[in-house]
């Protein structure tokens, strides 16, 4: 995946907000990180995204098995709902998986020996850990409009109409309550095609009894948030304006981009933030 934006946390500008996605930073491919040095370790559990899934082209799992082996990252193959996937954790404990999917456009970004025929396309979806799975299922199907596909073991599978990031598995049995920290996911984002559709969602979700925030300007998109009854934080974000707003598509991610309100503090922030260099690993 490509580092498509270096910016800062709007609420804590002394901390990076790093965005990774496909070559163009397309909606449905973006995952972000706040690298807080010395932060406490979190606990993955109810009220969180439990597993983040990435989609790769059909036939690419053999490449990813070898790559994980080469970097000495433990993994185990799993079959679920008729699909083959590789499950593993990142160095901080984030639960990840790679799954082969036919849908989704090819990621043309070439870097570090990863070619488009095996490259991550974007999100495959996520597995949600809910403190009240029945209520979360009700939301997904009857409010968010996902299609119920079926159940397997302790997972309930839903699908949206998109061609990427479109599969949501819901754990049907509550476990331990999650604790926010390193190695956990803060929220899951859903797409709105523009500001008008986002406002429609804001009104609709509020009418269903959920407490929805005002629209938040995130520079590259607008966002609203609400916590569903299973305690998972949902975001609905607009597709536009996108990550080429303040730098070219060719140079995205190469330097620190600051929102207007923090530009006057650039010198101080650049002294505080640890410099980032994207490097190829061998």
TrEMBL record:
Enzyme category, top tier: lyase
Protein keywords: Lyase
GO terms assigned for molecular function: lactoylglutathione lyase activity
UniProt-listed Enzyme Commission number(s): 4.4.1.5
Residue ranges annotated for the VOC domain, each copy included: 1-101, 122-239
Pfam families listed in its UniProt record: Glyoxalase
Annotated protein name in UniProt: Glyoxalase/bleomycin resistance protein
Phylogenetic classification of the source organism: Bacteria, Bacillati, Bacillota, Bacilli, Bacillales
